[in-house]
Amino acid sequence: MDAAAHSAKSRRSGRWQLSRGTGMDRRAVCLGELETMGVFRAPWVRDAIDAVDRTMFAPRRLWSLETDDQGLHRLLDRKESPAAWLEAVWNAHQSVIVQMDDGRTRPDGAARGDFTSSLSALDIVCEKLVQLDVRPGQRVLEIGAASGYHTALLAHRAGDSRVTGVEVDPELAAWGQENLKRAGCAARLECGDGLEGWAAEAPYDRIVSTASVRKVPAAWRRQSADGAVVLTPFNTLYCRGGLLRLTVKDRVATGRFSGTADYMWARGQRPPDGIRPPGTYRCRPSAIDPGQVLDRGWAQDFALGLHVPDVHVTHRVQDGARQTQLWDAAGTSVTVIRHHHWWHKDAVTVWGKRDLWHELTTAYTAWRTAGQPHPTRYGLTIDDHGQHLWLDTPPGQLHNPGPSLEQPSGRQEHRKEESGPR
Ligand SMILES: C[S@@+](CC[C@H](N)C(=O)[O-])C[C@H]1O[C@@H](n2cnc3c(N)ncnc32)[C@H](O)[C@@H]1O
User: What is the SS3 assignment for 194?
Assistant: First the structure.
């Protein structure tokens, strides 16, 4: 269905008038903001946003990103507090939460939990649509369809029959299908694991994910037509929030990080839980002030994370002293760095085979030596041999210091039976 038909149908049903009558101001403010941000530089994106009524895809009850004084996310009910509900739905920069804890926390009141589905914020929705550069008639696969709103925007541009959305959660998938039907959009919305793509409608000219991956699924590459664009939020365990734009040619996908996009993890690629380090550890001094390496802003953190993608990081202050803990995806190597007196021989404590502070500082040196490149100078290539990160020019492989199995020379090893890392 094209833009005109879509709008006409919505007007006939009366639903568009309803949303205008109650929310015109918020909508107008939001679109004005988006315009000012330049996210309508592809005019078709503005047309799609105009034609598809976002309020039809927002649940009656949703959680705002804002929290109350107990740190709980406020539940907004469209009937009980329509103004606040509309303000949240038309907030250009904030998503609204439609599911927590994979549905175990029900929308019965203010809550705290893991966000597992949302209606994405319009600024990033529009930015991604621009980068995706959908053309009429192209076949499009969307991963993480949920409400179906983004699916409908894609369908507005590509054509209903050309778009397939995949949503892993059955309850959300059924809700999204219903929303699309009510909105008069005939795009497919299937329930399944989007990390497997959707083979039945392949090959695709465009694949867009609205959930973050740390490994680009092989299925996306296999199901891409030659010349296809794959756009996905990309996290490492070290740092979230990259947006990766790949082009597929001769079954090889390659491209750079094209911006930022903080999306929830795709199910199947969530970080593993728990750490199980051995009881023994060794200590050593740090070679550098940890404050130079850690928590220095997104661009540095993301770039370093590309070098050490499977290293988690967390910071804490204990008895007034700052500590950082690193651990690997297997949870069997843990390194704790004390910031105060970092040159002392017990500043770094290492459990397990990998000295993760050695890996991270080696990455830091490589990044500094390369001139502190911004994440957009990094890229990724996926071929039959796996996923390779590079700097500036594909297909060279990024230097990854890898596991450090050896104790740095001259450092003392200690054994300890009691308390391991947290
Ligand atoms: C941030 S929401 C995006 C919703 C919608 N596309 C939007 O942009 O407003 C991400 C969605 O991805 C879904 N999801 C997560 N992992 C998935 C997977 N492996 N396959 C399909 N959907 C997945 C979640 O259930 C969630 O509904």
Answer: helix
